[in-house]
Amino acid sequence: MKPVKKIFSLMLALLSIVQLYAQNNTDTVRTIKIDVLVGLQFDLVRFNVRPGEKLNLIFSNSDDMSHNLLITKPGTRLEVVNEALKLGQKGPEMDYIPNSLSVLWSIPVVNPNQFRTLSFTAPKQEGVYPYVCTIPGHGFIMFGAMYVNADGRMPELKDDPNIPPNRKAEDNTMLSNQHSNHPLNGEPQPVKIKPLHPYTPVSPYIYRVFIYGASPAAIAVSLPGDLSYCWDAGTCKLRFAWSGGFLDNSELWKGKGDVSAKVVGNVFFRDKTQFPFSFSADNKVPKLDYKGYKLINRYPEFHYTLNGIDVYELILPKADGKGLNRTFRIPNVKSTVWFNTDQSDGVKYEALKGSWEGNRLKLTSKEARRFSIIMSVKEGGIL
Q1: Which 8-state DSSP code applies to residue 44?
Q2: Residue with more model confidence, 191 or 120
Q3: What are phi and psi of 276, to 5 degrees?
Q4: Which end of the chain is more exposed for a tag (fewer CB within 10 A), N or C?
């Protein structure tokens, strides 16, 4: 019996050594916590992780509107945001998460006062991995950056090109490592920080909304000078424009899906044409296909095709603040282009290229490669 006891004791000792070794070599899981600030902003705008580090990301939503969180491959944030926009009416059922190889990990839509957790292993490849909310209208200002490297380096906050411009003036100590995993009494403890001031968007900025007078794919844009417009991705045209404010989204942000955003101000233009463009004198409506948009100095340039021909449209406030300046590019058109207007739509038109034939501007294929339409509120208008 003694030899058996000795063997058993030896086995227990060996087991203890093995357990101790395992405990000392078990990969720890680091916890990262991200919440939401008022004004479409993540509270944690950037953080650093080691290549291959195991992570537990807790995404809490203390805002009064819903958000999701997607982590993408380096340099693909805008691509993913535009792919989410293209989901259209399928967006809600897909949590606005596009089927894209550029999406590495995702947290579905989190409603107000709820949270979700995502466990993943950081990429082994060093780089800057964006995270973004892709709910329509959010992705162009609601994003951050996950820095993956072994030495914890990140640029100075004021010089960081991977975070929203309005966040570059904040205290770096508040943003770089909000949540540590250093044990205190055996448990990881978050580092407490002072709250950030709410962010008020500065024009130009974009919302994807349900709005009366447009399809469910409406895009509302706030411009400097208290001007705003609604561009409809479902019909590929400018629907209406207004002055004096932007939108009242309060009911939408409460999570009510059966209400529309309300225009704040006065509508001074409303499109009344069958379609603004045609490629023939008979004004036949072309086949439409919305492709997305990109930001040029923070202004969206819309991209769509008409009968397979690429069209790009950029809308800026008129120099005197009393209307809109619309710049079009149709680089590959090979035929005459007609731009259609209506006398009762609330504005008067000017163009430096083409010739007017009644309410239609006729442009040669060369002229249509790039031209501008200036829309001014008519005398006696509201501006």
Answers
A1: -
A2: 120
A3: -65, -25
A4: N
Percent of the chain with pLDDT over 90: 51
CB 158 within 8 A of CB 169: yes
Residue 17 exposure: Cα atoms within 13 Å on the Cβ side: 6
Pairing assessment for the beta strands 237-243 and 227-232 based on DSSP bridges: antiparallel
Residues in the chain: 383
Task: Determine the Cα–Cα distance for residues 26 and 31; give it in Å rounded to an integer.
Answer: 16
**Helical segments of the chain, H only:** 2-25, 77-85, 172-175, 250-253
Residue 247 in contact with residue 237, Cβ under 8 Å? no
Cα-based distances in Å from 298 to 86, 164, 203: 20, 11, 9
CA 69 to the chain's CA centroid: 11
- Grouping H, G, I as helix, E, B as strand and the rest as coil, residue 368 is helix
Contacts of 180 (CB under 8 A, 6+ apart): 188, 189, 190, 191
First to last CA, the chain: 102
* Helix, strand or coil, per DSSP, at residue 326: strand
Whole-number Å distance between alpha carbons of 237 and 255: 28
Single out the residue of 279, 60, 261 nearest to residue 178, CA to CA. 60
List residues bridging with 206 in a β-sheet. 221
Residues forming a β-bridge with 367: none
Strands of 29-34's sheet in order across: 29-34, 54-61, 114-121
Q: Cβ neighbours of residue 304 under 8 Å, at least 6 residues apart?
A: 236, 288, 289, 290, 291, 310, 311, 313
User: Residue 241: what residue type?
Assistant: A
Q: What is the pLDDT of residues 84-124, one digit of tens each?
A: 988 888 888 999 999 999 999 999 999 888 999 999 999 99
Beta-carbon-side half-sphere exposure of residue 124 (alpha carbons within 13 Å): 0
Entry pTM: 0.53
At residue 23, φ and ψ (nearest 5 deg) are: -65, -40
Q: Rounded to an integer, what is the distance from CA 181 to the centroid of its chain?
A: 30
Indicate the residue type of 14.
L
